[in-house]
Amino acid sequence: MGDVDTAGGDDPTEARALADLLPAFRPESDLERAVASDPVLIEGLAWGKPRRGHPEGPVAVHVGHLLETIERWGETGRRRADLRFVALVHDALKYRVSPWRPKTGENHHAVRGRRFAERYTDDERLLATIELHDRPYNVWRRRRGDPGAVGRIIDRVPDLGLFVRFLELDGSTEGKNPEPIRWFKAELARRGLASRGRDQTQGG
Ligand SMILES: [Fe+2]
Ligand SMILES: [Fe+2]
Question: In the chain, where do the E strands start and end?
């Protein structure tokens, strides 16, 4: 298309690639700008084929849906910034999971995502949300009702409001079963923690 390539000042190849992957994304902070120009993140967002639970394909499509939903929910302030950062990073390290090793511990995409995020923040509310975002689903699926496993999640999460809100966000996309989140919220309610897991904006 023509030879007009004088586009806006600091717009390296990475930023171009991100614009292709997440066309609606506009950084809202220095943190977002930094993480969104990291080639590791960009490669991770580009990765993925349609599969069970993720009919949309590349991780970026899923992340784009989450960013749109944050917008639609009218999230503002710190909650908005937190959700956006976690949305960008939480699944982006799937491509770094070794297929020949168990997908647990340091080889789980969520833990890899946390390790990546540690380069950008030491806010444990964000890091724990990234690291544990799939844990309630796994406990629900494999160890339904295991109170010890639920307790171990809760003990590690400094901000249950953010955590539950992100579970709702991540679970809001097509192809996701709403049951694990309902179950996890019921577990919080049973422990008298429902108000900490419930956000002031919108429920369910
Ligand atoms: Fe995930
Ligand atoms: Fe996700």
Answer: none
